[in-house]
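Summary of Year 1 activities. Much of the first year was spent building the evaluation harness for sequence design. The harness presents a backbone, in tokenized form, and records the residue chosen at every position. We chose the following record to illustrate the format because it has been used consistently in internal testing since the harness was completed.
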């Protein structure tokens, strides 16, 4: 759907690099040139991070995974960079992602919850729900898209569509015209879980 044939491709939870490998396989299948793609990623688990570096190096894929394994939320290794394409399969309903240092993070400042009173200024931020990271992933990826041309595609658990804790963020994503499509996918697509998932496209 995204067709990352030329430019920069980012995955904030890249695991062992499978999305990057599938993307370059697609480019090769379409007679494209993988040297025109630069991949950027981050992975929290040290062993998986090393595996990703090895997988990409063995396939001759130009990559930038940062100097270490670390959490995308608490230590964004690609801060200030904007990408042509983002694709991800973040861990569904991830808990334990939040700490107090993230309360006023710039990645969600633009999604502040408006004050009910006109006399009171809006809150400085709209921190995604601490209970799970679904909307933190969305706003993190949005913060890294090239403003005029970036496209992101990612999977989320179906529950993200009705999360009451993130209602205001969800409304603002629609009002700001960031969501191009949300596609419902069938159950049992993954070996590790049978829950239903949705494929989001931000543009």
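For this record, the design step produced the sequence shown next.
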């Amino acid at each position: 759907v995204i067709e990352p044939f030329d430019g920069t491709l980012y995955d904030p939870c890249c695991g062992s690099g499978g999305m990057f490998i599938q993307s370059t396989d697609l480019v090769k299948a379409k007679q494209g040139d993988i040297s025109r793609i630069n991949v950027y990623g981050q992975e929290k688990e040290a062993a998986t991070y090393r595996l990703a570096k090895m997988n990409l190096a063995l396939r001759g894929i130009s990559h930038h995974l940062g100097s270490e394994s670390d959490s995308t939320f608490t230590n964004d290794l690609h801060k200030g960079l904007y990408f042509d394409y983002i694709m991800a399969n973040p861990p569904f309903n991830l808990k334990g992602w939040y700490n107090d240092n993230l309360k006023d993070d710039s990645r969600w400042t633009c999604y502040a919850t408006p004050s009910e009173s006109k006399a009171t200024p809006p809150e400085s931020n709209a921190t995604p729900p601490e209970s799970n990271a679904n909307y933190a992933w969305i706003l993190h990826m949005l913060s890294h898209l090239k403003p005029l041309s970036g496209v992101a595609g990612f999977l989320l658990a179906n529950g993200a569509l009705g999360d009451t804790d993130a209602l205001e963020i969800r409304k603002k994503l629609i009002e700001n015209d960031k969501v191009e499509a949300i596609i419902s996918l069938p159950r049992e697509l993954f070996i590790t879980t049978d829950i239903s998932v949705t494929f989001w496209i931000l543009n």
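The chain has four helices and seven strands. Quantitative recovery figures across the full test set are reported in Table 2.
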